[in-house]
Amino acid sequence: MNLQTKKHLLDIDCYSKEEIFQILNDSKIMMEILNRKVKKIPTLRGKTIVTLFYEPSTRTRISFEQAAKILNADVINISIKESSSNKGESLLNTVLTIQSIKADIIIIRHPHSGAPYFLAKNSEVPIINAGDGSHAHPTQSLLDLYTIQNNLGKIENINIVMVGDILYSRVARSNILAFSKLGANITLCGPNTLIPHEFLSNNHLYKNIKFEPSLKKAVKNADVIMPLRIQLERQSTGHLPNLQEYSKQWCITSHIVSISKQDVKILHPGPMNEGIEISSDVAHGPKSLISEQVTNGVAVRMALLYSMLNTEPNMNLEE
Ligand code: CP
User: Fold this and answer.
1) How close is the Cα of 270 to the center of ligand 1, in Å?
2) 138: Cβ below 6 Å to ligand 1?
């Protein structure tokens, strides 16, 4: 527990490989606390965490809230509909107002890619990006890494297949950076119109990434299959004939899973559209780690908040 983190977490490339592994290690300690009968430690007592979500969220927002409360921080959730944003207040002025009430960290989700970067330049309060447009979702990457490591023992050389809307998925973008940095083999699969070919350029950021247009071929040697939701809310032009056509060709069904390795694991960042990118029996079946991802997200966010806010040399793990 001695990570010297950056002030802000804007995307996964803010962290080195060593820093990522430190958070994953710290998350194991946090998981032990999360599994206690009384899940509360005093570590962040006196700290105030503000969540500022301009887009809907179930998992990320409650996961941060749960993580903060277990560490004894105070949490303020700002409801955008009931805030002065509705009266025309700018994003910057909203954040400066939160700064003035002496918040210690701001967790923001925003529909515009880059919004957290703009705030990080203009705010004294540390910013965590909880998803910006189709750009980045770094805490989802951290929890996905933790889930894979926890179940497969490692990330290096693991074959990960991401299927579907890579183009508009902030989870895919952050995960490609994260998996690539940690040495996994990544296969992108889906309609050609939703695969950004910039990821296939094999430079220092994007390594061991290939595109496989056939779903059956893509999943053959997969250790992990991760279907992604079609982000219809972000698509300004039609990239697909319709969702039924998409589903016929790209849905992760039990038949597709049966083509893959016997012990393949299924991850999905959520929210799922069951029957479109994943069938219900796969989503809730024995190979699915989707519920575990949500639980792991709390532990990972506890480790992250701890690393960004704790000022004590040793963590008090007592209840
Ligand atoms: N994975 C994820 O970001 O889910 P929410 O939109 O529910 O937060």
Assistant:
1) 6
2) no
Distance CA 141, CA 128 (A): 13
User: Which residues of the chain fall below pLDDT 70?
Assistant: 1-6, 232, 234-237, 313-316, 319
Ligand 1 pocket, 269 CB below 6 A? yes
Please state, in angstroms and as integers, the Cα–Cα distance from residue 36 to each residue in 15, 289, 293, following that order.
Answer: 29, 21, 18
């998803």: which residue's tokens? 131
Specify the pLDDT at position 192: 92
The whole-number pLDDT of residue 79 equals: 86
Q: Which of 54, 57, 229, 272 to mutate to test the pocket of ligand 1 (most atoms within 8 A of CB)?
A: 57
Which atom of ligand 1 is closest in space to residue 58's alpha carbon?
A: 7
Three-point CA angle 90, 96, 99, nearest 5°: 145
pLDDT, residue 241, reads: 75
pLDDT of residue 237: 67
Q: How far is the CA of 57 from the centre of ligand 1 (A)?
A: 5
